[in-house]
UniProtKB/TrEMBL annotation:
Subcellular location: Membrane
Alphabetical keyword list: Membrane, Transmembrane, Transmembrane helix
Gene Ontology cellular component list: membrane
Protein name (record): Solute carrier family 22 member 16
Xref: PROSITE patterns: MFS
Gene this chain is encoded by: SLC22A16
UniProt GO MF annotations: transmembrane transporter activity
Pfam families: Sugar_tr
Coiled-coil stretches noted in the UniProt entry, renumbered to this chain: none
Residues annotated as domain Major facilitator superfamily (MFS) profile: 127-555
Residue numbers spanned by region Disordered: 561-593
TM spans (from-to): 37-56, 201-220, 226-247, 259-281, 381-402, 414-431, 443-461, 467-490, 502-525, 531-550
Membrane topology: Multi-pass membrane protein
Length: 593
């Protein structure tokens, strides 16, 4: 049972406000020793499943070449210079823009077949591809069958449920609907994790990922498929949000950049696994089952995960904190008891603990429930929250616009997707190096500006120089992946323990808004080829400049209270004697009122 917050003669006070120095915990027990390493790699292993489920729809909704099926048995097929005895022989060469297929049935009737309609020739003279005769045309709908090319895609939900022609929009809703579930899950599970703990959410979401992932493969209709995928999206998002907070609260600031950024590397591994599995398995049900079970070993040891010391201290559970600290010390080869939980409290708060033990202090009233509104409690925090949310949004929008646009680069689609995941590794390596050398803010802002510049340059590149266009596209993906990778850690460091998961969850919600908008942004290419790049480029430039007003958190300990979080960046620069830009912004906002 959770111990209540404490109070005494000095006034009511939440224990989370009494945490003195998180640096001491890691200085004493190790920033990334054996205990943290085992816990980190175990937690990150399941993050591979998040990358898998986020991108799995690429091949679930893959649409092969198809035509409207004629009535009767086909005996002869003509398509340009191609001939065959069945539609399946010619379909791999079919291009709708180059004209219809002409077929002859066993009854002697001739049909011109297109993707969404078929026309019967009236009284044809002979069987040739082009013939000037009257035709009766009828639309192909669900009352008719379609014939699909199974040479590349043997089975997808498109071929199973005929999601083509007037039902094509249902297939296009698959990814945006999944991202809507991701959006909801990010907000819901981020809030719940601050209330019930990180450990419980990690266990529940990882189990549900396995159950819902396998269940998708056994759905019998489109609507059940979409519903279970929505639930799968919620729990996948919940795990990804909470695991960042979890690993951050178990590692010291000396390695926090590396551990946070490389959670994204696990996500990229998931993307590459989708490409490999999609290439090897061409039936969507088997494909889904394989992808959903590849991280199932995690379920056998996730129940051994401990709660984070930060969460236990914030909830006043000092005895459990002490047990955890002793376990960490023992596993790291150190002497148990070398660090006492009480020593992590301010002297004033430690005195209150002793008063309670002596029966002098009394339990406090139930602690205040924090909500998303607390992220906007002051002008300073409101400005910070808006800017951080904008970075989340453009990082996601740019990431998926570059990723979805990569399928149009030509070549093998499986190799393209594999490379889209592989290109993220140098992004995170360079991002880690820069974040620890020049700082979080001075890495994020230039990355966004570089992504915006790449978008603008793609617009002016001549269409016949494909190599340069591909290079700029990969440069944009590289830059946006840096911003996407560091914003999780940056958000964790900008907010205190009592509201950290909610802050990450809310930021991730803005991130998913970007991912929901991204597919529709890509569709704007039908209006103008470079309109998606123009939108991403302008937004990246603007938000990159706004990021310069955020405080730097490099080398700063994690904060525990809202007051400590607001104080970030308020110290004067000893070399320049200038105030933090964010403080200046706060002063301007106050003066305007």
């Amino acid at each position: 049972m959770q111990n209540p917050p404490l109070t005494g003669a000095r006034g009511a006070r939440n224990t989370c406000q009494g945490i003195m120095s998180v640096d001491r915990l890691f200085d004493e027990l190790g920033h990334f020793k054996r205990f943290q390493a085992c816990l980190y790699f175990a937690a990150v292993f399941q993050a591979i499943a998040c990358g898998i489920h986020y991108l799995a729809s690429v091949f679930l909704v893959e649409r092969p070449s198809f035509v409207c099926a004629p009535p009767g048995n086909v005996t002869d097929v003509l398509y340009g210079n191609y001939t065959g005895a069945s539609l399946e022989e010619v379909l791999p060469f079919f291009k709708p823009a180059k004209g219809p297929m002409v077929v002859r049935t066993a009854e002697g009737k001739q049909w011109e077949l297109s993707t969404c309609q078929r026309a019967q020739r009236i009284n044809p003279t002979d069987f040739t591809y082009e013939q000037l005769v009257n035709r009766t045309t009828e639309k192909c709908d669900r009352n008719y069958h379609y014939v699909y090319d199974h040479s590349e895609v043997y089975q997808s939900i498109v071929t199973d449920w005929d999601l083509v022609c007037d039902r094509e929009w249902l297939a296009k809703l698959c990814q945006p609907t999944f991202m809507m579930g991701v959006l909801v899950g990010a907000l819901v599970f981020g809030d719940i994790a601050d209330r019930v703990g990180r450990r419980r959410i990690l266990m529940i979401t990882s189990l549900c990922q396995f159950v819902f992932g396998v269940s998708v493969a056994f759905t019998g209709n489109y609507y059940l498929f979409m519903f279970i995928r929505f639930l799968l999206a919620m729990v996948s998002s919940g795990y990804l949000v909470v695991v960042f907070v979890y690993v951050t609260e178990f590692t010291g600031n000396k390695v926090r950049t590396w551990t946070s950024m490389h959670v994204h590397a696990a996500f990229a591994v998931g993307v590459m696994m989708v490409a490999i599995t999609g290439y090897l398995v061409r039936t969507w049900r088997s494909y889904q089952i394989i992808l959903s079970t590849c991280t199932s070993p995690f379920l056998f040891f996730c129940w051994k995960f401990p709660e984070t010391p930060f969460y236990l201290m914030a909830k006043g559970r000092l005895q459990e904190t002490q047990v955890l600290l002793d376990s960490i010390a023992r596993f790291n080869g150190l002497e148990p008891g070398r660090l006492r939980a009480e020593n992590l409290l301010e002297p004033e708060q430690a005195l209150l603990e002793k008063e309670v033990a002596a029966g002098v202090a009394q339990p406090a009233e139930p602690e205040k429930k924090l909500s998303i509104l607390d992220l906007f409690g002051t002008w300073r925090m409101a400005w910070r929250t808006v800017t951080v949310g904008a970075v989340w949004f453009i990082s996601s929008l740019g990431y998926y616009v570059f990723s979805l646009g990569s399928v149009n680069l030509g070549g093998n689609q499986y190799i393209n997707l594999f490379l889209a995941g592989a290109v993220e590794f140098p992004s995170y390596l360079i991002g880690c190096y820069a974040m620890d050398r020049v700082g979080r803010k001075r890495t994020c802002a230039p990355a966004l500006l570089l992504a915006g510049m790449a978008c603008m340059l793609i617009i002016v590149v001549p269409n016949d120089i494909e190599v340069l266009a591909i290079f700029l596209s990969m440069t944009g993906k590289f830059a946006i992946a840096i911003a996407f990778g560091l914003i999780y850690l940056y958000t964790c460091e900008l907010y205190p323990t009592i509201i950290r998961s909610l802050a990450v969850g809310s930021g991730s919600m803005m991130c998913r808004v970007g991912s929901v908008v991204a597919p529709f942004c890509v569709y704007l290419a039908d209006i103008w080829q470079f309109l998606p790049q123009l939108i991403v480029g302008i937004l990246a430039f603007i938000i990159g400049i706004l990021t310069l007003w955020l405080p730097e958190t490099l080398g700063e300990p994690l904060t525990s209270t809202m007051e400590e979080a607001e104080a970030l960046g308020r110290k004067k620069n000893p070399e320049e004697g200038k105030k933090d830009p964010e403080e200046g912004m706060e002063m301007n906002l106050n003066q305007s009122n």
